[in-house]
Each structure stands twice: as C-alpha cells, then as structure tokens.
Amino acid sequence: MTEMKKICLLTNDVETTSILNGGLRNETGIKVWKEGLPRLLDLYSEFNVKSTFFFIADFAQEFPEIVKMVLPYGHEVACHGLTHDYKFSFDIMDYESQFLHLQKSKIILEDISGQEVVSFRAPALRVNQFTPKALIDTGFKFDSSVAPQRLDIFLTLGSKNKLQWLGAPRNPYFVNEKNLARKGSSILKEVPVSSFGIPYIGTTMRVSPFLNNITRNLLYFETKNSNKVVNFLIHPNELIEEEKLDEKLERRSGNILKYLLADVLRSKLKVRNLGVPALELYRMELLFWKKKNYEFKRINEI
Fold this sequence. Notes:
Layout: E1 7-14, H1 26-46, E2 52-55, H2 57-62, H3 65-70, E3 76-79, H4 95-113, E4 119-120, H5 131-137, E5 142-143, H6 159-162, E6 173-176, E7 179-183, E8 189-190, E9 195-196, E10 198-199, H7 202-207, H8 209-223, E11 230-234, H9 256-269, H10 276-291, E12 295-297
C-alpha cells in the first residue's frame, strides 16, 4: 500500500501593517525587512523549510531587498496584492480594478525576483465574485484566500462575503469562475488556509497557544491519512517589537458593530506574544510537523 503524502505549507504575508499601533507604517516595514524577515528565514533554514511568501507589491517596490532576501533559500515569491490599504480591498473592487491591481503587482514582483509569480492571497482574505476571473486573466494559477469553516469571521472585515467559507472544501480544489469558495472547472486552484472552527494562523498561536494546540492536533488527525494539506498563515510583522504610540484607533467601518468587533476587540486581542515570544511559539509548530514527518512545501508545488 502506498503511503499517503503528508504536506504542511507554511505561508507568509509580508506587509507593513503595525499590529501594535494599527495602520500601514513605513517604520513597521523597515522592521519587517531588518528584523522580522531575517528571524523567519533563519527559523525556516533551521528546519529545512521551503515556503511561500506573499508580498505586497508597493512595499516590495519601495524595498526590493525584502523580496531578494528569500530567493537564496528557494522560497516561492507570491503576490499579496498591490496595497494592503483596506480602501482597495478586493471585495469592494470591480473586475477591471482587480485586473489592473493584479497585473501591476505581478509585473513588479516578477521584475524584482526574476521568477514567474503564479500564487496569490488577498489582503485580509477579502475577495468577491470578480476575483477568480481577474486572477485567471492575469496569469495566476493558485489562490490561497479561503479559510473553510472558520468561525471567527465576524471579527474580521468583509465578513459578509466570508460566510461562503462555511461551505468551502477543505482540501485543494479547482475553483468556480465566480466563487473562490466553491469547486468548479477553471484552471485556478484554491489552496485553503487551514482552520478547524478556529483558524490555524499566527494570530491564534499568539493570542491563545492552548486553542492553537487543539486546532493543530485536530488538523493533524484530519490530514495524516487523507489528501488534505495543512496550510498555516503567519506574518513577519508578528515577529518584531515596536513601541506603543498613543494614537487613536483607525475606524475602518461605518457600522458600529463591525467597528467594535473587527477594530476595537480584535486590536486588543492581536497584540499578545509579539516579537521573540511569537518566534519561539512558531518554532514549536515547526517542530511538531517535523516530528510527524510532514513535508514542507510551497504553494506552487501543490
């Protein structure tokens, strides 16, 4: 009997968002470049991990060294959109706007890396019915913007569109041309971010290591004898230390309930275990999958 391949994807969203202070900050981007990314690359080298890095293109254009840093390690360069500004989220853009954003992002990242860029993840995992076609028409082959059965969606922006995640397949699949969360006959493959009610991401790992361990163990039992893959999402900005600034929290939604859940409550929860504590927690995640003999792969190898 052929042994089932067991695969763990460690995927990274590279951006300038300040978790501690909120908003997009060049100072945060510089710390990601000088501090967060080197810590991540050293950890991956320690475990012989090959990974996928989703870069915000305008950040990469301003600091191209962040892209060039991952190349000697054999990591995949992927696209996280042109900007992480919520005013340009994919779930509020029409087809033409998405096409132009993706086209420009792809050109920037390919020029810097010298690699074909074929994988995409939407900022904040926010997409709509135009995103599949826009991705296909700009030459992308893989998406990783869906998190099936993730139950904390009401703590995130764009929660209405994310309700479709509840019925999304849990293993990689070719998508419907009008819905990334449904199977179809297109050439675009969805590689979902793992969740088991609770998302398997760096935020969960930091905010509640206990819940993260339960989620990880459930995912292990689900995937060890199946064709499902584990897809963990983390950000290099989780591995940096910043000074707390006395600034007013940015309000990203006009809806008071969304503001309280997605901005106020979430911002208070997300600041736990940043910097070196996050790095050590993440080392334990890698050690777990390494001991279970999972292969560390890139998105474009699925």
